[in-house]
Amino acid sequence: MARPGRPRAFDTDEALDAAVEVFWRRGFTNAGLTELAAAMGVNKPSVYGAFGDKAQLFQAALRRYVERNMGYVTEALQKPTALECARAFLIGNAHAVTMPGRPAGCLSVQAVATPEGSNEYSVLARNRAAIQERFADRFRRAIDEGDLPPDEDPGELAAFLITLSSGFAVRAADGTTREALLALADRAMATFPAPPSEENNRD
Amino acid sequence: MARPGRPRAFDTDEALDAAVEVFWRRGFTNAGLTELAAAMGVNKPSVYGAFGDKAQLFQAALRRYVERNMGYVTEALQKPTALECARAFLIGNAHAVTMPGRPAGCLSVQAVATPEGSNEYSVLARNRAAIQERFADRFRRAIDEGDLPPDEDPGELAAFLITLSSGFAVRAADGTTREALLALADRAMATFPAPPSEENNRD
DNA sequence: GGCTTTTCTTAACGGGCGGTACAAAAAGAT
DNA sequence: ATCTTTTTGTACCGCCCGTTAAGAAAAGCC
Question: Which of A10, A140, B167, B170 could form a disulfide with A163 if both were Cys (CB 3.0 to 4.6 A apart)?
Answer without folding.
Answer: B167
